[in-house]
Amino acid sequence: MNKIETLEMKEISKSFQGVRANDGISLKIRSGEILGLLGENGAGKTTLMNILYGIYQPDGGEIRINGCRVSIDSPRDSIEQGIGMVHQHFMLVQNHTVIENLALGYIRSPMLFPQKKLRQRIATFSNKFNFDVDPDKKVWQLSAGEQQRVEIVKALVNGAGLLILDEPTSVLTPQETRDFFQILEKMRRDGQMIILISHKLDEIKKLCDRVTVLRKGRIVGHADTKDLDKRSMAKMMIGRDVIFSFSREALPRKDKVLDVSDVTIDGDKGFPVVNGISFDVYRNEIFGIAGVSGNGQRELVEAITGLRTVSRGRIRINGVDITNRSPRKIHNTGVSHVPEERIRFGIAPNLFLYENAILKQHHQKKFSSRLFLAYGRIKAHTRKLIEEFQVATPSINIQTKNLSGGNIQKLILGREIAGNPDLLVASHPTYGLDVGATEYLRNQLLKRRAEGGAILLVSEDLDEIFELCDRIAVIFQGRFMGVLESDDPRLSDIGLMMAGTTHLTTGEGADGSF
Fold it and tell me: Do 345 and 290 sit in the same domain of this protein?
């Protein structure tokens, strides 16, 4: 395999069912560069990188490596050409060791004893880039940052000269993010090419030499990042100015809506993953839970919304015990839920948009007439919903899976807010969304707070937590490390709290009670 010195994509076009995802896109990257790829959800970034990685075939255009045209018909062809991709959701087998995962993905793996050959290569890359990867650990034993390093090593052992990184810091703690940035800087100095897909403009500004901005399948700008600030990058992305700081009006807490008392919840393997957590959420309040994925927040949300059984403790809504009730009964008490995985749990992808607009509400009188659905009223409700929540769609009569991620999330949030719930449980509501959709959804949460709603917000985005929340709890291994007011100076230690090294054992809010 020859070393990649330059890579060009020239006039790349791709359509899906008549819709142009990429329209004559050209970009170039050289050895030792980090190129940032920016764009709204649905702008065509992922499609373009899937073409480069061999998952899709372009309708037109060409790819050139070191000036020579190449054909990339599959991911294996891409790997053979020296291109590696680290996906947003890691492609690792959890019950296998690190070295077993690397052997599975190693295209030159010998028939006999592949692990022996790989150990030396792992050691080489670990020393070179300070990866500190234990080849004999099971993947499930690793933190998100360690798993990400395994994915990078997996690409490097196959000889990748170009790395495509898709939202690489979305599951990392602040400390892991700093370590990751140092790794990328070392790789750049070593001559590695990197294409970084990120919605975090600060990351693009800090790490990238150049940025290419896509909008609606076309390139709207190339620039050196030293010549741009965050605001100008955002304006290139969505064509207007974006608000980066939100004014959260000070509101007095009113009635208690959610009361979680000494709750313990078992995980999928039968062991407790939430251990004796207690907290309250009030009207006119956004209560935030910050933490790295996998520390019990998903199970806690599922228990509150009726998707998982509580093994000990009580959950009450407006004084009514809802512990271990069905999701429908909990929804009927005034609880709405924006789930973490919007495609898997927030919508039925193959149903039409107007059908998804009334999920969990179809049995209500306003949408049904005895045995039959009232489609006229349903469609009128849907049209009002997409107008109020700015859902970009050509029609309400299309399958919901054809919407972009941001528009699906707007639809879900609109559906859940439309019934004026007493408690809105929102899990990672802006995860993976562009700055425009993020701005809109955060404003909707603040609006619901001002209307008297109580909001439980679970997020790994610390900017989101700090901007929106009145109180912040930090969760680690199923326990709250502390619950603090948003202006508490001790929140400067939130990174350490997320990593489990700082625990507030004294003072108001240490156990989640006030």
Answer: yes
Q: Which residues have a Cβ under 8 Å from the Cβ of 363 and sit 6 or more positions away?
A: none
Contact between 20 and 217 (Cβ < 8 Å): yes
Q: Are 145 and 133 a contacting pair, CB within 8 Å?
A: no
Among residues 320, 247, 257, 249, the alpha carbon closest in space to that of 283 is found at: 257
458: three-class secondary structure by DSSP: strand
Structural domain boundaries, residue 41: 6-238
What pLDDT digit, counting tens, does each position of 32-51 carry? 999 999 887 667 888 899 99
Query: Do strands 479-485 and 423-427 pair parallel, antiparallel, or not at all (unpaired)?
Result: unpaired
- Does pTM surpass 0.85? no
Q: How far is CA 349 from the centre of its chain?
A: 19
Q: Which residue has the higher pLDDT, 294 or 383?
A: 383
The CA-atom distances, in angstroms, between 233 and each of 24, 184, 437, 441 are 21, 22, 15, 20
Tokens 């077993």 map to which residue?
100
Q: Distance between CA atoms of 375 and 354, rounded to whole angstroms?
A: 9
Calpha distance 488→285 (Å, rounded): 16
CA distance 295 to 129: 28
Number of domains in the chain: 2
Nearest-10 Cα torsion for 452, 457, 462, 468: -10
Calpha distance 131→147 (Å, rounded): 11
Q: How far apart, in whole angstroms, are the C-alpha atoms of residue 100 and residue 106?
A: 10
CB neighbourhood size of 345 (10 A): 14
Rg (CA), the chain: 24
Q: Are strands 372-373 and 423-427 parallel, antiparallel or unpaired?
A: unpaired
Tell me how far apart the alpha carbons of residues 402 and 21 are, in angstroms, rounded to a whole number: 12
Asked whether residue 292 falls in the same domain as residue 398, the answer is: yes
Question: What is the per-residue pLDDT across 101-128, written as a single tens digit (0 to 9) for each?
Answer: 888 877 766 666 666 777 877 888 777 7
Same domain? 120 vs 268: no
Closest CA to 287 of 510, 128, 486: 486
Instruction: Looking at the structure, tell me whether residues 300 and 234 fall in a common domain.
Output: no
Q: Which residues contact 274 (CB under 8 A, 6 or more apart)?
A: 263, 264, 265, 296, 299, 300, 303, 478
Are 36 and 198 a contacting pair, CB within 8 Å? yes
What backbone phi and psi angles, to 5 degrees, belong to 171?
-120, 20
Examine the domain organization and report whether 219 and 331 are in the same domain: no
Element (H, E) at 439: helix 435-450
Which pLDDT belongs to residue 495? 76
Q: Is residue 511 part of a domain?
A: no
Q: C-alpha 233: how far from its chain's center?
A: 20
Angle among Cα 499, 504, 505 to the nearest 5 degrees reads 130
Whether 416 maps to a domain, the answer reads: yes
Distances in Å between the Cα of 458 and the Cα atoms of 91, 103, 110, 372 are 24, 36, 45, 37
